[in-house]
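Figure 6 in text form: structure in, sequence out.
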């Protein structure tokens, strides 16, 4: 059985993330979507809120479960008995950071490999950061996130 982890901040989950989740769930037997609980960052949504939103949007995908983690990703991967870490690559600008992270993780643990999926072209421009910025000005984010998520984002901005 091959288990993969798809880690991230998911603040909030976007159609770009959902694209990667659906495609990796087809390749691996089990996919754990893992939300980083990082007190240093100040996310718009709490870890619990992010987990709940992901559970909502992944409800139809049988082999996906959602969890959260703190600390090092490789430690969480070992604890979860995962073989692979999944990361999405949108553009060449992602590459340097992703390569550095994958190589660091490989040095920290030889047991887990990183597999990159290229984000589908229609979502290549998309990031949680831009979604939040557009929403903060009250503009339409329905092309970026599912309706239920958009509602929660607007609520955060008093909409
Ligand atoms: O969605 P993001 O913010 O790009 O995800 C980044 C994430 C969560 C994958 C990365 O920050 C991470 O793995 N953090 C855990 C700490 C860690 O293991 N750091 C060492 C790898 S450089």
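Output sequence:
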């Amino acid at each position: 059985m091959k288990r993969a982890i798809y880690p991230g901040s998911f603040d909030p989950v976007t159609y770009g993330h959902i694209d990667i989740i659906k495609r990796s769930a087809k390749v691996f037997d089990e996919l754990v979507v893992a939300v980083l609980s990082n007190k240093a960052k100040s996310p718009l949504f709490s870890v619990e809120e992010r987990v709940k939103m992901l559970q909502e949007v992944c409800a139809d995908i049988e082999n996906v479960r959602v969890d959260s983690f703190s600390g090092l990703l490789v430690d969480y991967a070992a604890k979860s008995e995962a073989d692979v870490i999944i990361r999405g690559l949108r553009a060449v600008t992602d590459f340097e950071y992703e390569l550095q992270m994958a190589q660091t993780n490989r040095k920290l643990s030889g047991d887990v490999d990183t597999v990159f999926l290229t984000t589908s072209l229609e979502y290549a421009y998309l990031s949680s950061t831009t979604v939040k910025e557009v929403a903060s000005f009250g503009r339409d984010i329905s092309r970026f996130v599912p309706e239920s998520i958009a509602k929660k984002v607007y609520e955060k901005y008093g909409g």
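Caption detail: The chain has a mean pLDDT of 96.
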